[in-house]
Structure formats: C-alpha cells, structure tokens
Write a structure and sequence with these properties.
Chains: A alpha+beta, B mainly alpha, C mainly alpha
Shape of chain C: elongated
Shape of chain B: globular
Distance between the termini of chain B: 13 Å
Number of strands of chain C: 0
Number of helices of chain B: 11
Oligomer: heterotrimer
Number of strands of chain B: 0
Radius of gyration of chain B: 24 Å
Chain lengths: 602, 323, 311
C-alpha cells in the first residue's frame, strides 16, 4: 500500500514534468501548422474589451452590439463615409411628396436574408409597426412618428405625422419578419437572437461568451462584396493585454489602446501599427440632479440652483483631465455634443469666456447662491443643510479616472462628496428613480442631432420609478424644450442648425451637466497587414465603431493578406520559448533522477 | 474502512451543502440590486413582460415561496437566469467549466507534484543547500501575489517576446483539428498554468517540508535505519507516506483557494473560465450568476474535502476506526 | 507543547502570591522566547524588516506631503517620468510621485492587514475556544459554521461583502477578517481539546470552577502562544487578499494601497512602457512585507512548537 503510494508520487512528478513540457511542444507545433496551412481564409481579428451583452436588437445597447448589428442588420438607406450624406442601401431610390411628409422607397431587386428567405418591403413595414407598438428603444427615435405600408414587395411608403428633417434618411435596423413574428412580446425580453439570420455583409457563425464572436461573409449580401472572409472580435479582460496582443501580432486591430500609449502609435513610433481612432462625438459628463418639479427623486436642493451648477462647472479643470486622464486625446466640451457630425458642435458666442478652471469664481458663485460655510466645517451650508453631495461612480469605465480629480476640486471650493460605486445597470436604475446627486458617465450621439437633444427634454424626465427616463440630469427647461420641438420639424438645414445652436446655448447657461470633454476612440490597426480603411466622417472620424460598415467592406489585406511573416517569426520564437519551458521541466526531472541516484549511493 | 466513517463523512458534507444553500439564498437577497435594472430607462416593458421577467428570475411570491422554489430548482440544477446575458446560469457555468477545469486541474497536479517533491527533498535533507535554496525560493513565491506574477509573465514571456499567446484559450483564426488543436490549447494554457502553479507551489512545499521534519524524528524511522535499510528506501517507504497525510487535507482545502486564484489569473490572461465569469458577474452585480458560481465552487470544495477525508481514512489506519 | 516549569529568580525576593508566581513565569517565558527568536536568524530579520515597513508607514508624512496623494498633484509634471533627483521613484501614470504613493500605501496595506488579522483572530479564538470547550449541540453547530467558512470560496465572498458593506479601509479589514478566521478556529479548537485532557484543567474543573474561569485562567493561557503564532501567519494572507481586491478594482478607490497602485499601473500600461519604477516598488513591497511576516511567523511557530525543530 505504502509502496504503491511512493510510486504514485514518483509518477505524479513525471506527469507534472510532461505537462510542463507539452506547452513547449505546443508552441512550436501549432505555429508550424499555422504556417503549413497557408490559411486560405482571410480573417480580420479585432480585439475588444467589451463583450456583447445580447444580440437582440430590441434589448442591447453596448457599442459592440451596435457594431455587430451594423454588420448583420440591413437599413433602408446608408450614410456616406465623408459626411454622412444619404446613400442607397436596401432602397435603390426614393422620392418625396411636396409636403415632405411622405416618402416612397424602391427596394433593390432580389434581396435575400442569409437563410435564403426574400427580404421585402414587408420586413420594413413589420419593423416600423412592431417597434412603435412595443416601444423598441433602439428604433423609436427614428420610427416613432412614422407609419409604413407596402403596396408591393419592392415598395415601401413611409408617412410621417409631423415634418421630419431626418427624412429621407432611414437608418433603423430592419429585422427579419419571418424570425421575429414567431417571438411574442414577452419572449422577446429574453430572446438571445441566436438564429443569426443576417441581412448585412456578415453573419454570426460562432460565439463563445467572453472569448470571441466570429462573423463570416453573408453569401446573400446585396452590397459590395467584402475582401475579407471573416471578422472576429476577440474579447480581452484588460486594455493592456489587448494592446499586447496587437503588438505581438495575434490580432489585427484594437478598439481601446491605453491612452498613455496612443500618442506614440499616432506619431507612427510603433512598428507596424497605425492609429485609426477618431471622434464619433462621444463625450463624458458629470451629471447633476437638477430636481425637475414634474419629476421624481431626492436630489440635493442646492443643485436646483443654476449658480451652484455653474460653480461646479467653474471648479473643474478640463484641460488637466484631458492631459492626464486622456493623455491629450480629447478636447474640452461645455455642452452635450449632439451629433457624430462635428458640424453640429456647440460654438460659443464670440468674446464669451467658456467654463474653465477658476475656483475663485466658483466660490464667488456659491457665495452668491447663499451657500456659505457658516459653521467653519470646511463644507458650505445654507438653512442648516450641508452642501454634501452623493457622487456615484461606475464600477467599470473611464468615470473612475476622473472621480478623484473632481471630488478634490469640489472639496477645494467647499462642496463635500460621498463616493459610492455601482455597476452600470444599477446606476441606470438609480438615475431612473432620480435618487442621485452627481455621477459621471457619457453619451455617444447618433448622426442626426435630434436623438441626443431629445434626451434632455422634460418629456424624458423620469416620472415613474419603474419606467425611468433618458433625462439623466432630471432637468426641465421650457426654453430648451421649445427649441428642441422647433428643430425637430424644421426642414431647412441652416435654420435647423441655428435652432440646435440656440438649444445648446440654453444648455450652456443653465449647466444641467458639467460636460467634461469630447474624447477620441483610441483604435489602432496592423498597418503591415491592412490598408484601405475608411474614416467616417472623413479626417476626424474613426475607422471602426462608427456609423456603418464601410471599413469592413473596403479593408484590403496588404500583399494578399498573409500574416506568413508573422507566423515565421512567431514560429522561431515559439520554438525558443518551448525549449526554455522544456528546459525547466527537464531540470526538475533531471534533478529528480540525479538526487535519487545520489541517495542510492549512500 | 469502517462504513460508519463513510456515512458520517457523507452526512457532514451533506449538511455543509445545505448550509451553503441557505447562506447563498440570504447573501444574494441582502444585496440591493434591482433585477430589472438593465431595462430601466431603456425598454418600456409592459406589466406582463415585467411579471414574466421577475418570474424567470425567481423573484415572485413571498420570501418563503422564493426560498422553496430556489431549493427545488437548485436540486434540479436550475440556477435561474443571468441578469446580464439573460441566459440560463447553468448553461453559462457549463460553457465556462471546461477551460477552468483544464487550468485548475493541470495547475493542481503540477503544484502537488512539484510542491510535494520539493518539500520531501527539503525536509529529508534539512539544512542542505537544496533545503535552503528551495525554502527561500518557495517562500518568495508564496509571498508573491499571483496577479503580479501574471502581469510580469504576460509582459515578458508573451507581449515582448511573442513566445506565448497574450490570452484566450485557442487561436480563433485557425481551424486546428486533432493533435494540432490540443497543442494550440496547451500553448495558450502555458502561462496561466505557470502563474497558478508558481503561485501555489509555496504552500505545498512548505507544508510537506514541515511534515517531513515531523516524521523524521519518529521512532520507526530509527528502527528502519537500524535494520540496515538504505536511506532512500527509508524515505520512500516509511517517511514519505506518513508525511503525506497532512498534505492530503491541504490539497482539498487549497482547491478552493486555487479557484479563487483562478479569478485573478483568468482576468490577467483574458482566459474565459469560471474565474473570469466570477469577475464579470461581480462587476455587473449579476446576482443569479454569482449565486450559481458560489454554489458550484463551494460544492466542488466540499466534494474534494470529502474525497480527502475518505482518502485519509484509507491511508491512515488510525482514522475511521470506530470510536 | 511544553509549559515552562515554575522557577523564580534565585537571587530575587521570594515570591509571595500566586499572581506574582504567574507573572514571573510569564516574564521568563517571554525572555526565553526572545532569546530563541534572536537565535533564529531568518525570523529575526523578518521581524526587523517588518519593523522597517511599519516605520516607513508611520513616517509617511515626513517623507511626502499628503497633498501628493491628490489626483491633480501631477499638474505640470510629465506622466510616467523615470526616477530623478526630484522624484526618487519617478512619477505615476498621472504625474504623481510614486514614492509618496508607496509610503502612504504602506499605511493602508499594513493597517488593513493588521486590523483584518485582529478581527480574524478574535472571531477564530472565540469560536475555537467555545467549540472546543463546549460539548454537545453548541460545539457541533460552531464546528459546522467553521467548516462552512472553510469551504466557501473566500475571495468572491470578500468581494461581495465589500460591495454590500462599502469599501472603506475599516470595512475591508472586517470583510477580510470575517472571511479568514476559519483556519485559526480549527487550530484553537484542536489545542483546546488537547489541553482539556491535561491534568490541571480537569483538576480545576473537578474543584468546581465555572466554565468561564477554566477557559480564561487555564485554557486561554495555554492556547495563547498558538493564537499569536497563527496570527502572524494570517497577517501576510490578509495583506495579499487586500492587494488582490484592490488590484481587481473592488477595494477602496480613495486610499492608495499597494494593490491599488498595481491596478493603476496596469491601467496606465506601465509594464508595456517599461515603467519599472511604477509597477516594481509596490509589487516588491507586498512581497517584502509578506515574506518578512511569514518568516517571522514561522519562527514564532517553531518556538511555540519545538517539535518542529530548528532548521
């Protein structure tokens, strides 16, 4: 019995040695076979740090979700890369009525879903109708005021109940009717959308949570044929690992280079890497609970005062945040950024000094508002109420990096904060109940400014804790509302742009948020393997994770797309690495043998 | 072995499992987490949809009804639905189990093998150069946080040199089959396994060494030597088997720690196993998922403890006799 | 476990009360312990190294001003600057002095480590004593609770508890303590069981002493050395746990512990940029303090449990 055990122990050690040795064989052999295969498939692998939460277009809202829908769900019209101008997609052509309320779209001939079912006007009508009925939140901003009919399978007639400046652009995701009609409203809430029926250039063929998603070319895609056979999104737990995988050549592009490294990539100082990031209008803000009377919640009374909110705006050093937190990859912002198109950005009136780091001015404003430190506690107070604000931080995301700065600065001007950390969903729920004072988060606007502007109208102020609402400043302002409504139905582009600017000016003066900055998406790609990426919008926009799928259609492998050279280097290095590990294993085995023979001699 | 001993150990494990079950229920209901948080402010759910979701999450009815339903479902291995992905928790766990079993399994075998071997050698030759060198290095390994070790290995053996992949479980761009696939997996496993192994090597080696020191002084070893047995034989036949006993229970207990270590290691290496799932579930406050993971890993530790106890009974004739 | 024999100082005044006898006996034991510790080189060095870390933590305000911990302390300085005369350990990802973070981080890491140990030891001792001494239902219930805390995966539990209770250093210490007492309760219980068989405890009980008296007067002094030795081994584990929590981002984000520094270093891609001055010091400090305490704890264990013999 005991002898057997001793032998077992010996065996165990050998197993251990072999197990260590296996990876070493692995490194050489797997690389060798990779080179031998001469992979005939052209794969484009993107590293991402965010996993898909759901493929269900009625439930998902993460950036990665939208990117996948851009590749798998068709839209009636597309957006040009340079300036978002309307382009044909499902619809070949369109004509509008004289009053601009009715538009007739003619679909391309012989459109098909990836499973071979015909893609018709019926799918469009179905999507419009059901999205309104059930309030699909990714659709209603566009479809809410529309009705759709299909006189024949290739014709869609869209009628808007009000003048709609967004038309004729129709960029909502069209869902396959033959799949969705089998799923009722209740089942839809947990529908995983794993039927993977695609109407875009790619279709999902494989997915493992937290590992990767594979999309292969959709043979029935009606548009430009992509030059790549598959797109793979590989999910990383940390940006640094993701970046390392890019420099090591394991992947082709990443969505999130650590900001401290981006400058060197952008300067072209990293071999084989090219920066492909840009602004899609995303911005970060310190949201404040403005305590709208018609809304619900328990925000701090001080934040109802415009002067206090302005004071908070003056106590934040946006330039330092950009320098330190973003390593320079952003620009200060003072109002919401309404559109991915920078043409809509807020332009301050000439001669007006925009919010900057001025603690003295902040203190003066707080004094003026009646918040003074009457009890010498270091914290201002008024009528016996201390200026002590709850500050909610997200457990993930860039909110975290700015929190330390902002809370220090607020303390400097006499505003105490109490930081609590929540996951994003819980924070959203708290916001929907109005139970917060301050939190940091951000928005990514669409191309048309309407949606972003609508979020801060009083119509979106939460009134029912169960339903919540987009207006996360709990802010209502009649002047802003009126300007929003006016731009919504203004068909003249110049007049509309002017109305948008006026609304932003109201936002600036009232300061319902302290908007911090507009930041760039820090993406990079292997320039030794890929070329022909498309920025959207031109010059300033990002190549991936923008408002469409144009980059994926244009991407061209350099020199036929082999990463053969990489494999060879990796092969050699892999062998060396393998030898080292085998050496360590060998050391233990050898050591074992030698010492036991020593014992035998004794 | 006495059958009563086995029954008693089984009973204890069963009671513990019950404890875990009850604790789990209450722990994850203390947390103030809105199960529908994901929908707030986004979809406008109808009352029927809300009720349906609440029911799916097992949060309808009184606390007692919830509890009985929870016990009933758990027995049927139904852990509910993830708040985050809305998939069944059991499906999620099954998906993630394979990679973690591989990682933790191989590391455990390696840790035990190498750790015990070092401990035996060091303890048997107390004060030797090997003892001094190995004790010093195992102590340093014990003191090193595994995430720090992982960060260094990732940076120097993967990112800079390209010897090993930066993360994941396989090369997703290649369609390997057969042996090539196995090798590819092994290549991806190497660094996480190395991290976990080095991280937990220390405690095994140290315990085994102490245990050998304890045994070395025992009378029967003196007798065995006096009988003229060779030193190596005395060690292998008499000292090691006895000294192994304390390590058996350490292995069972440390299995739980290694599962914990898998959280950091899997996070550092983006390795999609149960550890990373736990990390993500905590970040998302995904209570059903956490509940399932807790139950699963506790059950695993209880199971291995049971095995260790029974093994103890087999190995040590003093244990398991009727009292 | 050997109990020191009663032997008063030969040339001192005669001992009168039993209390004096006890005190003298304890003093002697302590002196002997100290001598033994002095002779254990590794253990002694461990103690000294730990002492140095404590001094560093206490002297933090002398080494760096607390304002260095402000997020905007890096204003006007380069990010990730290598060591220089001005910043001996360079600057971190947002331009702050790494040395300042390190010395103030020592406070947080050591404070949480020691407080957590205290919590764990108190819970562990109480439960161990009661479950070892009380027979019957109470004993077996406590044993089951102990078993339970041994099997539950403690890292996720600690994280969940921290999320429920908040993330201040005190809460974290309690959370870590609450999740790591099970092992010491087990040890204490075993020791109590052994002691209970000893003559003097049984005599005391036979003489009609109450349970509490027996425990505090006879059992507790008997298990105290074991508790102390065990405590010295919990400290390093607690420090490691705190650093892991902080690294994963589940710690207190406002206190600069070493684990948080490592987490921040990773976020700043310090390793990729070869900023060794940022990620090595906190890592080495964790290793150093854990190693020092482990070596010291093992030396103590050896003194209290001579059966282990010297090394």
């Amino acid at each position: 019995m005991k002898q057997r055990l001793a032998r077992m122990m010996g065996g165990l050690t050998v197993v251990a040695g072999v197990a260590v040795a296996i990876p070493s064989i692995g490194s050489s052999a797997s690389m060798a076979s990779a080179a031998d295969d001469g992979k005939d498939k052209v794969s484009f692998t993107v590293g991402v740090t965010q996993d898909i939460d759901t493929l269900n277009v009625t439930a998902g809202y993460l950036v990665i979700d939208y990117e996948i829908w851009n590749l798998t769900l068709p839209t009636l019209t597309d957006k040009a890369s340079a300036d978002f101008a309307i382009q044909p997609s499902m619809a070949e052509s369109w004509t509008g009525s004289d009053d601009g309320l009715t538009w007739t779209y003619t679909l391309g001939d012989g459109l098909k879903w990836s499973d071979g079912e015909p893609m018709t006007a019926d799918d469009v009508v179905y999507t419009v109708t059901r999205s309104i009925e059930e309030g699909w939140f990714n659709h209603t901003a566009v479809t809410g005021n529309l009705t759709a009919t299909s006189p024949d399978p290739r014709t869609v007639v869209i009628t808007s109940s009000v003048p709609d400046p967004k038309l004729p652009v129709l960029d909502f995701y069209v869902v396959p009717k033959h799949i969705y009609e089998k799923i009722d409203a209740e089942a839809l809430t947990t529908y995983p959308a794993d039927d993977n029926v695609s109407g875009g250039p790619f279709m999902i063929t494989e997915r493992t949570e937290s590992e990767f998603v594979r999309l292969e070319k959709n043979p029935n895609w009606f548009g430009t044929e992509p030059k790549i056979d598959e797109v793979i999104y590989r999910i990383f737990a940390t940006p640094e690992a993701q970046y390392s995988a890019l420099t090591a050549g394991e992947i082709d592009a990443v969505d999130d280079v650590p900001s401290s490294l981006y400058a060197t990539v952008a300067a072209g100082d990293v071999k084989n890497l090219e920066s492909i990031g840009g602004s899609n209008g995303s911005f970060s803000e310190l949201a404040m609970n403005n305590g709208c009377e018609t809304g619900i919640g328990d925000g701090h009374p001080a934040l109802k005062d415009k002067l206090v909110r302005q004071a908070i705006n003056w106590s934040i050093d946006r330039d330092l945040l950009i320098e330190k937190v973003l390593a320079g990859t952003g620009v200060p912002a003072f109002t919401i950024v309404p559109s991915a198109n920078p043409a809509f950005d807020f332009v301050p009136a000439p001669g007006v000094q925009t919010y900057s780091y001025d603690p003295e001015k902040a203190k003066a404003l707080l004094d003026e508002a009646g918040w003074v430190d009457s009890d010498d506690s270091g914290v201002r107070d008024k009528d016996g109420v201390e200026l002590n604000l709850r500050y909610f931080d997200r457990s993930v995301g860039t909110g975290t990096a700015t929190t330390g700065y902002i809370t220090d600065w607020l303390k400097d001007v006499g505003i105490a904060t109490e930081v609590q950390t929540f996951d994003e969903d819980t924070l959203t729920a708290l916001q929907g109940k109005g139970e917060f004072d301050l939190f940091t988060w951000g928005w990514t606007p669409f191309v048309d400014p309407d949606t972003m502007l609508s979020y801060l109208t009083s119509a979106n102020v939460p009134v029912d804790p169960d339903a919540g609402g987009y207006n996360d400043a709990n802010w209502c302002n009649a002047e802003y509302d009126a300007l929003y409504e006016a731009q919504k139905v203004e068909l003249d582009p110049d007049k509309r742009a002017d109305l948008v600017q006026q609304a932003l000016q109201v936002f600036y003066d009232e300061a319902p948020y302290a908007v911090l900055y507009k930041y760039d998406l820090l993406m990079a790609i292997r320039s030794d393997r890929w070329t022909n990426m498309v920025r959207q919008p031109s010059v300033t926009g990002p190549v991936l994770f923008n408002q469409g799928n144009l980059s994926y259609l244009a991407l061209t492998p350099v020199g036929g797309g082999g990463d053969d050279e990489g494999s060879n280097t990796a092969l050699i290095i892999g062998i060396i690495g393998g030898v080292v590990v085998a050496g360590i294993a060998g050391f233990f085995l050898f050591k074992k043998r030698r010492t036991s023979s020593d014992d035998d001699r004794e | 072995m006495n059958p009563w001993f086995v029954v008693k150990k089984l009973w204890v494990s069963f009671v513990l499992l019950g404890f875990v079950l009850v604790f789990n229920f209450f722990l994850f209901r203390i947390v103030d987490r809105d199960p529908l948080a994901k929908y707030r402010g986004r979809s406008k759910l109808s009352p029927e949809q809300k009720a349906g979701l609440i029911k799916q999450f097992g949060l309808d009815g009184s606390k007692w009804e919830q509890f009985t339903a929870y016990v009933r479902n758990t027995v049927r291995l139904d852990f509910g639905r993830s708040f985050d992905s809305r998939r069944l928790v059991s499906d999620e766990i099954i998906d993630r189990l394979g990679p973690t079993l591989l990682l933790v399994g191989i590391s455990t075998v390696l840790t035990i093998g190498i750790g015990l071997w070092i401990g035996i050698r060091a303890g048997w030759r107390r004060g030797s150069r090997f003892d001094k060198a190995s004790t010093a290095s195992t102590m340093v390994l014990y003191a090193t946080p595994e995430f720090f070790l992982g960060m260094l290995l990732l940076s120097y053996l993967a990112a800079r040199t390209g010897w090993f992949p930066v993360g994941g479980v396989r090369d997703v761009t290649a369609d390997y089959t057969g042996f090539a696939a196995v090798l590819d997996r092994a290549h991806h496993l190497a660094l996480p396994v190395l991290t976990l192994t080095l991280g937990y090597l220390g405690s095994y080696a140290l315990v085994m060494r102490t245990s050998m020191l304890d045994t070395a002084g025992e009378d029967y070893l003196v007798t065995a030597r006096a009988k003229g047995l060779r030193d190596a034989d005395v060690m292998k036949r008499h000292a090691v088997p006895n000294a192994l006993l304390p390590s058996v229970s350490l292995i069972a207990i440390s299995f739980g720690f290694i599962l914990g270590g898998a959280i950091t290691t899997e996070t550092v290496f983006s390795y999609p196993g149960l550890g990373l799932a736990t990390y993500d579930a905590i970040g998302n406050t995904d209570l059903p998922m956490l509940q399932g993971l807790f139950l699963f890993s506790s059950a695993a530790v209880i199971f291995f403890n049971l095995i260790a106890d029974l093994l103890y009974g087999v190995l040590d004739p003093r244990v398991g006799r009727p009292e | 476990m050997t109990t020191p024999t009663i032997a008063g100082p030969s040339n001192g005044p005669p001992l009168k009360t039993p209390r004096q006898v006890t005190r003298a006996r304890r003093l002697l034991a302590a002196r002997r312990m100290w001598a033994q510790l002095r002779s254990d080189r590794a253990g002694f060095i461990g103690l000294i190294v730990f002492g140095l870390f404590v001094v560093m933590a206490l002297a933090a305000p002398l080494i760096a001003d607390v304002s260095e911990l402000r997020a905007d302390a890096g204003r006007g300085r380069p990010n990730l600057a290598p060591p220089s005369r001005e910043f001996l350990l360079g600057t971190d990802g947002i331009g702050r002095d790494v040395l300042a973070q390190l010395v103030w981080g020592a406070r947080v890491s050591l404070y949480i480590g020691l407080l957590a140990t205290f919590v764990a030891v108190v819970i562990g001792s109480v439960i161990g004593l009661i479950s070892g001494y009380a027979k019957g239902r109470v004993g077996s219930l406590l044993l089951a609770v102990d078993d339970f805390f041994l099997v539950i995966p403690f890292l996720p539990l600690a994280i969940v508890l921290a999320a429920i209770l908040g993330r201040s250093p005190n809460v974290l210490a309690v959370v870590i303590g609450v999740t790591s007492w099970a092992g010491s309760a087990r040890l204490v219980r075993a020791q109590v069981l052994t002691l209970s068989q000893r003559g003097y405890v049984e005599r005391s009980r036979a003489l009609g002493s109450r349970g509490r008296h027996v425990v505090t007067r006879h059992v507790l002094p008997g298990v105290a050395p074991l508790i102390i030795a065990n405590a010295t081994l919990i400290v390093p584990a607690a420090i490691l746990t705190e650093s892991t929590l902080a690294f994963l981002g589940f710690g207190d984000r406002n206190s600069p512990s070493w684990g948080k520094m490592l987490g921040d270093a990773q976020d700043a891609a310090a390793i990729t940029q070869n900023a060794w001055w940022y990620f090595l010091p906190p890592g080495l400090c964790i290793i150093g303090v854990v190693l020092a305490f482990t070596v010291f704890g093992r030396a103590l264990e050896q003194i209290f449990n001579p059966k282990l013999g010297g090394r």
